[in-house]
Amino acid sequence: MMVKEVAELAGISVRTLHHYDEIGLLCPSQTTEAGYRIYSDEDLTQLQQILFFRELDFPLKQIREIVSRPEFKRQEAMELHHKLLLEKRVRLERMIETLEKTMKHEKGEIRMTNQDKFAGFDFSSNPYEQEARERWGDQAVDDSNDRLNKMSPKEQGQLGEEMNAIYRKLAQLRYGSPASDEAQQAIGEWFQMLNRMGNYSLEAFKGLGQMYVDDKRFTRNIDQFGEGLAAFMRDAMAEYADSRRV
Asked: Which domain holds residue 129?
């Protein structure tokens, strides 16, 4: 199939396919003498796999790394996609239900408790664990999981409340300088919080801040506390790390 036909079939733009080719993510099996890209059935199967990853918010760079690994098995990937998409559907259905109730609450048709308002928002799971393992090694993540697993449900709930309190504090400061005393004090609390759960060096802390912006899943979750918070935290975390290096 020609590139325009593939774009129409998959519901993406021709420019997207050109970009995939340019970065080595999906290179068509053939190119005519005139320079036209020709996609095979195998190429289309690969494109479907890529779009499943994109639907789950994987960055293009990570998709390329995953599918190019010798040990990559398509069937296993599809089984994982199926599991994650089902989980995503459940989360979306819960959030849609919460949104619909909130709309009725705003109209005075029903009354919601504070607990009702946040049904469907679940930040207790960590979908980025594998990325953390790849960046900083298994030990830091294993230490973090071990510490969390040893906490009681009450302790885990208190930890979540403390984390949200820091998010809200930083959200109030996000229009100021990330290097201000107030911002650095608050981001220092975040650094200490993370190290209660794991072992984060200053370099890892700075790298995590960059991921808050590079990975749109992080950005969406953090910016729920205030638009632009993820970028502000990245800058504040970089300042905190750089100013404390020996």
From this structure: 124-246
CA-to-CA separations, 140 to 11, 129, 144, 231, in angstroms, rounded: 40, 11, 6, 24
Residue 51 tokens, joined: 């779009």
* DSSP at 112: -
**What CATH number does the domain containing 99 carry?**
1.10.1660.10
Q: What is the pTM of this model?
A: 0.48
**Residues 232, 212: contact at Cβ < 8 Å?**
no
**Assigned token pair, 221:** 């979750």
Q: How many domains does the chain have?
A: 3
- CA 39/CA 18 separation, integer angstroms: 12
Interval 139-190: pLDDT, tens: 555 666 666 667 777 777 788 888 889 999 999 999 999 999 999 999 999 9
What gap in Å lies between CA 219 and CA 235, rounded to an integer? Answer: 14
Please state, as a whole number, how many other Cβ atoms lie within 10 Å of the Cβ of residue 238.
Answer: 19
